[in-house]
């Protein structure tokens, strides 16, 4: 991948480019999507939606006292479908009857990292029980509606404010105070998500889920069902798109009592590819895992097949944000509805920073892996658990990893074919901790049986990561025991999660990471490999290996010239051009005859920013090119 072609110092020199998700960048993202698979999936989702509509209408006809829509505690409740057990499934916002906690302030203007990352140019989706109030003074016309004739709501306005409130009142400053959102009501979420993702949307927030009560079958909890499958369909088709979902607030409401507070997750929270967020109290100064206090309501995992859910946590207790009573009103709410937009807004900042540094946006597996690899530890034991997931989101730590890419960290996006493998060597230099993450967007899984707690893995393509030290010591990823959810995480072969993380304390010397897979892969599997605390052994620390290189004109229209005079050893000189999302769009090869002077035809390239790598296979330089 072209990420391996860039040196760290060159990238830091690019910090002023790629500030917004432009139309050109959206088109480049869209061009990577498989049109054949999309057409098949669209037909499947449409058929499923029609089946749901028919079943709902039949149920309503047989139960005239039941309403398809209603308002409860001021919020919209909607009858979405009839589940496999014949029960009506209502969805509602996840209320309960900040920014400092996750470290976004370090990226904002005036923050400790010296950046100005506040969501500029980043648009996120917001599906909720009602629209965010677009006229609120803190939104400054940065909210658009994705549909018409739906009502604004307190909940949608509060959630949207947590994401992007400008901070005219500093107490109300959102995570991404200069970002934008497109606001929808949640009653047709999957088809709308499908369309927005097809247009290049990167992130969306979903602070709602299945409304459970005493009549909800126990078998529903933890089971991978229709809505989770639908979310995985959309995210698998559009690998740059990541939905962020609230975990729910049902832990102490008397459901599934035999599991002692565990196994309460339902519905969308069980999607493999989404980011599921639990809620904790606010933290002003993190001093260790005990600093992270679990809320009284946040729903815990596991999934029936033992996957690590929720993925992470953020503040969700007594969150003050925008209210819907007027264009200046505020409200204070608690719930995982409040922690989820904290994460969505934080990820908006990471996308902006990565694009600003690398000239492209991250795949969803990359941003998810980055967030989970850099969390602050939470809970009683090292590693993940079914209460806090991987821990407390730490936007500052994730940003530092982006800034150190190709120096003390590595962020790779690659693909694995069936029977294939990948290896890379890394060297540590005084790091306290060495961490590796393997993350991928998996295919939608098969529906499990009706049995309660069916442990059959939902994973389709099962990748594996292993790290080997120079002395032969092997390190394996964390995993949890679905049959003993309170137990501490162990390490070993992980058969259920599509995020695998290895951490090595007090590392020394060289380490080799291996990526393999079990069985046969269904298609080629894209994956993201993230390493924090080590330098790639093959990485160059030199910005320009070809010191006499000249590239002109720049910006260019139909062609540009490359010249250099220093001798290179290779028989051929290669020129590779990559677009802003890392696709190779042009390759030229020339005989190495000494002084190099060639005109490169780029008449077929669209306007935008490109990266040009010139070299002989051993020595190379990379330069930015603007095409008009």
Automatic annotation (TrEMBL):
Taxonomic superkingdom: Bacteria
GO biological process: proteolysis
Sequence ranges assigned to domain Peptidase S8/S53 in this UniProt record: 146-391
Residue span(s) of domain Secretion system C-terminal sorting: 551-627
Any one GO molecular function term: serine-type endopeptidase activity
Enzyme active site: 128 (charge relay system), 155 (charge relay system), 337 (charge relay system)
The keyword Transcription is assigned to this record: no
Similarity remark: Belongs to the peptidase S8 family.
NCBIfam families: Por_Secre_tail
Official protein name in the record: Uncharacterized protein
